[in-house]
Amino acid sequence: MNYPSEWNLRRAIAFFAALGVAVATYIAIADAGGDAPACLAGGSGCQTVADSSYAHVLGVNIAIFGVVGYVLLLASAFFANDAARLGGFLIALGGFGYSIFLTYIEVFKIEAICHWCVASAVLMTVIFLLQATRLIAYGGTDGTAPERA
Amino acid sequence: MSAEDRRTRLLQVAAGAVFLAVAVVLMLIVVNASSDDGGDTNLEGAGEVNRSLRGIPQQALLLGDPEAPVELVEFGDLQCPACAAYTEEILPPIIESHVRQGQVKLAFRNFTIIGPDSLDAGAAAVAAGAQGKGWNFIEIFYGNQGRENAGYAADEAFLEAVAKASGVKDLDQWDEDRTKFRAKVEETTSEAESLGLTGTPSFAIRGPNTDGLEIVGTPNSTAALEEAIEEAR
């Protein structure tokens, strides 16, 4: 099977992770901007989601975890070694799993959809697929090795 | 270790992690699906609410000594999750150390922004207030909130259960008042709108040091709310 070169996978991961950093940072700042969570008149899904009990874990806005996760994913794209491949994959796996859970919560529990959260979930899914491809195709090779057959 | 061994090891770790992730996500979903389906009349925390409010005067939806120098007004929506969190986390120390001591009176005014059911719930709270149990009603309601606009907030059985748990003595009277007080809820909602408030909970304060009723917004901590009280005093 022909995989894209690891260089291309890394570039793609870096690109989507950078977008993820932007999205998560936006959500984190938007959340920190209000002096306290409030229910807004005529508020959109985002407000409902942000006000829900699921928006914070241990008192920390989950967007902060998102920022950290995307930064680590971005970092993983800068190295072509097994640690970066496995680390990147594991972080993406965690992010992807958590995104599935949050999307489930949005649809069935909070019954509100926040498009920023959806954007993050899509990015995380793409990054997860890229990281998985990278690990399967290049795991165990050294950085300069040509792509595996 | 050969490259092939390293690769095998990596993929084993990855596969293990995938199984773990699938298990964790499924578990989280199952746990969340089975919790808080609501709709029943087993009210949580009623005893605790009634104990914590015991001995504090109540008139209509005013908690505390009517002669208290500072009046803190909360504009809230009974269906609003942020209001519930606020009532559970930020207000109790204020009630214990300022309201109970007679320095501050705390007024709840309905500002119905979540949906039409909030009107039913709000009127039921005002009706409980007419029997001196308004804050008990509000706090027990908050402790048992369901999903926004899912119908629970206008559900007769739920409202009656909350009223009963609050200690409302004359349920027939309460039931009658509920209809009457819908106008009151609409009135306070209009008041909130005319004050330019856009969300709940929003606070306003009146005291010797304020220029009438001053908006304080939504202070994000007990300390911030206390500061507002200090400034008004």
Q: How would you describe the overall organization of this protein?
A:
- The complex is a heterodimer of chains A (149) and B (233).
- By secondary structure, chain A is mainly alpha-helical.
- Chain A has one domain: Up-down Bundle (de novo design (two linked rop proteins)), CATH 1.20.1440.130.
- Chain A is 69% helix and 4% strand.
- Chain A is built from 5 helices and 3 strands, in the order αβαββααα.
- Chain A has a two-stranded antiparallel ribbon.
- In chain A, a hairpin with a 2-residue loop joins strand 2 and strand 3.
- The radius of gyration of chain A is 17 Å and the shape is elongated.
- The mean pLDDT of chain A is 80.
- A 6-stranded mixed β-sheet of chain B has the order 1-2-4-3-6-7.
- Chain B folds into 2 domains: 35 residues; 187 residues, 3-Layer(aba) Sandwich (Glutaredoxin), CATH 3.40.30.
- Chain B contains 10 helices and 7 strands.
- Helices cover 54% and strands 12% of the residues of chain B.
- Chain B is α+β, with helices and mostly antiparallel strands and 233 residues long.
- Classes of the chains: A mainly alpha (149), B alpha+beta (233).
- At the A-B interface, strand 1, helix 4 and helix 5 of A face helix 1, helix 3 and strand 5 of B.
- Strand 1 of chain A pairs antiparallel with strand 5 of chain B, so a sheet runs across the interface.
Instruction: Give the helix/strand class of chain B.
Output: alpha+beta
Helix amount of chain A = 55-70%
Instruction: Evaluate the radius of gyration of chain A.
Output: 17 Å
Count of DSSP H/I helices of chain B: 10
Q: What distance separates the N and C termini of chain B? A: 74 Å
- Counting H and I runs of at least 4 residues, what is the number of helices of chain A? 5
The name of the CATH architecture of chain A is Up-down Bundle
Radius of gyration over C-alpha positions of chain B, nearest whole angstrom: 23 Å
Question: What is the CATH third-level topology name of the largest domain in chain B?
Answer: Glutaredoxin
CATH architecture of the largest domain in chain B: 3-Layer(aba) Sandwich
Low-confidence stretches of chain A: none
Order of helices and strands of chain B: HHEEEHHEHHHHHEEEH
Principal-axes geometry of chain B comes out as elongated
Considering the protein shown, what is the CATH homologous superfamily of chain A? Answer: VKOR domain
- Mean pLDDT across the residues of chain A is 80
Q: Shape of chain A, please?
A: elongated
- Which CATH first-tier class of the largest domain in chain B would you pick? Alpha Beta
Strand content of chain B: 5-15%
